[in-house]
Amino acid sequence: MEIQRKVFREDHEQFRDTARRFFERECLPRQADWDRAGRVDRETWLKAGREGLLCTTIPVEYGGGGGDFGHAAVLGEAQSSCGVSGLGFGLHSEIIAPYILRLGTEEQKQKWLPSICAGESILSIAMSEPGGGSDLKAMRTTARREGDEYVINGAKTFISNGLNCDLILLACKTDPQAGAKGVSLILVEAERAGFRRGRKLEKVGLHAADTAELFFDDVRVPVGNLLGEENMGFKYLMQELAQERLLMAVAAASKLEWLLGLTIDYVKQRKAFDQTVWDFQNTKFKLADIKAQAVATRLMVDYYIGEHMQRKITLQEAAIAKLFSTEAMWKAVDDMVQMHGGYGYMVEYPIARAFIDLRYQRIAGGASEVMRELIARKL
After folding, report:
1. CB distance 64 to 57 below 8 Å
2. Which of 57, 82, 105, 175 could be a cystine partner for 182, CB 3.0 to 4.6 Å?
3. Cα–Cα distance between 251 and 63 in angstroms, integer?
4. Is the pTM of this model over 0.85?
5. Strands 167-173 and 123-126
6. In what helix (H) or strand (E) does residue 242 lie, and over which residues does it extend?
7. Does residue 132 surpass a pLDDT of 80?
8. How large is the average pLDDT for residues 257-271?
9. Contact 150, 170 (CB under 8 A)
10. Catalytic residue of the set 230, 240, 244, 317
11. Does the active-site annotation cover 213?
12. What's the chain's average pLDDT?
C-alpha cells in the first residue's frame, strides 16, 4: 500500500511469513472440500496447533505462542490476504481463549488451555439467541444453582465453530431478574448430558465455517466451570468485545488491500469496446476512491493495533475501527464486483467469493447500527 508500517516488529513479520506459508500449503488446497463439508477438518486444526498458529497470545507455559496482539493481528492479515475462507482459528485463539487466560483460575487454565492451544479442543462462544440478536441483556438461557452444580437450560444460534466445538463459553443468566447484572460465563463441555447441536445453518457465504444452533436441556456442570465471578459476565463480555471488533477491522483492512490489487490487475487486462476497462475514466476514478479509503483504513487500523498492544484501546475506539473498516470494505467490494462485469458474479473469482463471504462483517461482533450507538454515547 506504499505505506511504511511501523506497528510491527521483526518477529511479527517473521511470524507473518510462517502463517502465509501454512495457509497456502495446508488451507487453500482444502478450501473446496471444506466448503462441501460445511466445516474445517480436525487434522488442519491439529496441524495449526503443531506449527504454533493457535493461541498466539497465550503464555508458553500453557502451550501457547507467548506472543502479543501483534502476532494475532499478522495472523489475521495473512489469512485475509490469501483467500482462505471459513477458518475459525481467530475466534478460537484470539477471542475465546483469552477469556480463560484472564478470568480462569489456575486449575481451569491448566485443565483446558494446553489442549486448546494444541487444536485438540475447539472453542465456541455462545451469546446470540433466537430473537435476541445483539441484545445480550435480553438473553433467556439460564443456569440455576443446585448444590455444587449449575443446571443450564436454553438455546443459542449463529454459533461459529458450533459443529466442531468441544468446549463452549456460554453466556447465560444466573439471576434472570437482574438484566445485564445477572449474566454469567460458564464453560460447558460438549459431551455433557443434555447438550445437543441443532442443524448446521446454511449461510449466504463462509460455507466452510461451521455455524450451528446449540441446545441446553437440563445440562449439569460443576460450579467450578464458572469463569470469573457470578453475575459479572456482561462486564467481562464488554471488556473483551473490543479485541473481537478490532480483529474484524484488521481483517477488513487486509481484505480491502488484497481485493484492490486483484481488481487493478483484472481491469488492466479485461477488454471492452476496443480498450481495457482500465482506460475508462470512471474505472480510474472509482479505483482512486477505493485506494484512498484503503489507505485511510490501513492508517487507522494500524494506529489502533498499536494502542491495543498497550491495552489502551477503548470500547468506543474499537467500535470506530470496526464500523469504518467494514463499511469501507463492503462499499469497495460492491464497486469492484461491478468492474468485473459478469465474471464478478462467478464464485471462481475471488471478488465474487468476497462478496458473499464478507457481508457478515457488518453484522457479526455487533452490527454497524450497534457500533454507531456505542460511538454516539460518547459524543
Report:
1. yes
2. 175
3. 25
4. yes
5. parallel
6. helix 233-267
7. no
8. 95
9. no
10. 244
11. no
12. 94
Q: C-alpha grid cell for residue 94? A: 484470539
Question: What was the pLDDT predicted at 134?
Answer: 60
> Which of 183, 182, 126, 185 is closest to 159 using CA atoms?
126
* Distance, CA of 119 to CA of 164 (rounded, Å): 11
- Position 137 pLDDT exceeds 80: no
Task: Identify the residue with better confidence: 345 or 4.
Answer: 345
Contacts of 254 (CB under 8 A, 6+ apart): 76, 77, 80, 81
* Adjacent-strand bridge partners of 216: 154, 195
Cβ neighbours of residue 371 closer than 8 Å, sequence gap 6 or more:
245, 319, 320, 322, 323
Give the end-to-end CA distance of the chain in Å, rounded to a whole number: 32
Helix (H) or strand (E) holding 305: helix 281-309
* pLDDT tens digits along 154-175: 999 999 999 999 999 999 999 9
CA 103, chain centre distance (Å) = 20
Assess contact for 346 and 304: CB atoms under 8 A.
Answer: no
DSSP string, 12-34: HHHHHHHHHHHIIIIIGGGHHHH
Residue 210 has which C-alpha cell? Answer: 461451521
Q: Look up residue 363 and give its amino acid.
A: I
How many other β-carbons are positioned within 10 Å of the β-carbon of residue 99? 21
Give CA–CA dist 283/305, Å, rounded: 32
pLDDT at 1: 58
